[in-house]
Amino acid sequence: MTTKASTTKKRSRAKSIVKKEVNGMEASALQIQNLAIGKIKPDPEQPRKTFSEDALQQLAESIDKHGVLQPITVRQLNEHYVIVMGERRYRASMLAGKNTIPCIVRTYKNIDVLEVQIIENLQRQDVEPTEEAEAIAYLREKYAPTEIAKRLGRTDNFIRQRLKLAGLIEGFKHFVRNGEMTISLGVGVALFVPEEQQMMLETMGKDFNAHQINRMIKDQTYDLEKVSFDVTDKKLVPKAGSCVECPFNAANQGNLFGDGKMVCTKSSCYESKKNKSFLNLIEKSKKENVLLIPEIRKYWADDERNQLVISQLEKNGLKVYLLDDVEIIEKPIQPTLEAVKEEYQNYDYNEDELKEEFDEATKTYNEELEKYNSATANGFRNGIVFHPESYIHKEVYLKVLEKSEDESEVCSVPLSNRKMDDCTPDEQIIKINEREIRKKQIENNRLFEEVVGMIRETKYIETKKTLSVDEMVAFSISLYENNVDYCSQQKHFTGLLGNTSKMSKVEIVENFKKKFKKEIFHKLIRYMLTKQVHFGESNHINNLTNVSFYNAIQGYHKTKITDIEREYVEKRDTREERLKERIAILEKEIQELTA
């Protein structure tokens, strides 16, 4: 009697006939043969290039114990055999010291060997992403993305993303392979042509910086849901056609930015359409005799970009009014209870309070709607307000404010609210300097936010080095500024920062660093330890912070702590003795009642 187990054992010694279907075609009868490993060679054209050494070693140990459970596929070439599928099992068998390996020998007629290797590799779970992308790109030469998705059992979007990743230049692929660059970020970079990718790589420098790359992608991509033109318009720029069908629309390259998210990746085309839409807006203003108002305040009218917009309006024969020159009535948005709930989601409001807020919002809406509906009767006219950078616009009612010709009245207006033309040369210098100071402030705000954002994305927090002096200085000042109240500053830290009346913030830090001692750092930490404990229902037995603090102070005032503890122990012992006496009396009464 032959059992299944004995049959399985015989397979390693005898030939057995099997049938296999490849790409939907049944092959002729195939044989499993034990071939000498010395006669087998890897295929130099094999698309898989990377093999995990640890995984190979684990597989070698398994093969040494159990043998090769699944035969490899080879094709004969002259006096030796070339691997089609199973190079990993072949390598592990070599490590295990095997002399033979079970093989299926095939002669391929109607299918390309490389294609078989690619499909076999792509169906593994541990495919290196860039190799996977390149392999799918090879299949794309023969099959449509949807067909590739069916063959590999993947989604269309997965295939499109990998096809896009295949367009990544080698310099960035290196970062994907070593794990520094995520696949999604790699796909984002691959949206751009190789020349632009190379510029991004050179701008970044030697060390990989995900924050910087994200910033460059953001600066060169445009959300098509927030544009000044109709993305379905094929005639706006005839050569470019509709954005909906454009190959540079990320939605047509796979859902790279989310489900159906339309993002333009060709800045020149985007700028052309944006500028053309602005010219069309100017023509509409002239043709329909509506005022065209840029969203610019007089204070920022001299900004270089704003001046370009103003000059373009003037060149087209339009009288320029800024936001300060007009009164605007916009069509109000009707409130909903859901919108009110979202607005006050961080407030602890009950349903009645939310209803009150909704009723108040509805009342305000009705008042604004009445004002909007009666705008023309009150001297308002049709107008268009647009953003000076994006040119996104909205239709409104507006009225030009009357300007007083009384020079003294003009001079009574605060300097910050006056146009440059209304200022004396001395006042203009003041305004120019004030604006430059403000611009520097904004630049520094943005610079600092960008640096902090970049640091948070690095492994700075995981750094194993001891704190540097600068880090201890930063932590000390942070503790002092944000946690030490005024009274404690005067009591414990008088003169910590020195005389700061004539120093800038940068100078204060540098001065503090020169005088810094670790004793200051330790003092601030001990102050924080005394302030961060919890009272009320928390104590040194049931609260983690309190327990750790209580243990920490034992080495400083042990005698005083012991004295305080002794007082409480004595009180507790006295109380417990009384309780015992009381309980004994009650127990005696119980015995008498049950006797």
Would you mind describing this structure in some detail?
The chain has 595 residues and is of the alpha+beta class. Helix content is 51%, strand content 10%. The chain contains 23 helices and 14 strands. It has a six-stranded mixed β-sheet with strand order 1-4-8-6-7-5. Helix 6 (145-152) crosses helix 7 (156-165) and helix 18 packs parallel to helix 21 (518-531). It is extended, with a radius of gyration of 38 Å. The N and C termini lie far apart (83 Å).
Query: Mean pLDDT across all residues, rounded?
Result: 81
In terms of DSSP E residues, the strand content is: 5-15%
Amino-to-carboxy terminus distance: 83 Å
Level of helix content? 40-55%
Shape: extended
Strand order in the largest sheet: 1-4-8-6-7-5
State the total count of DSSP E strands: 14
Largest beta-sheet characterization = 6 strands, mixed
Number of helical segments with 4 or more residues: 23
Radius of gyration (CA) equals 38 Å
Low-pLDDT residue intervals, each spanning 5 or more residues: 1-29, 406-412
Structural class comes to alpha+beta
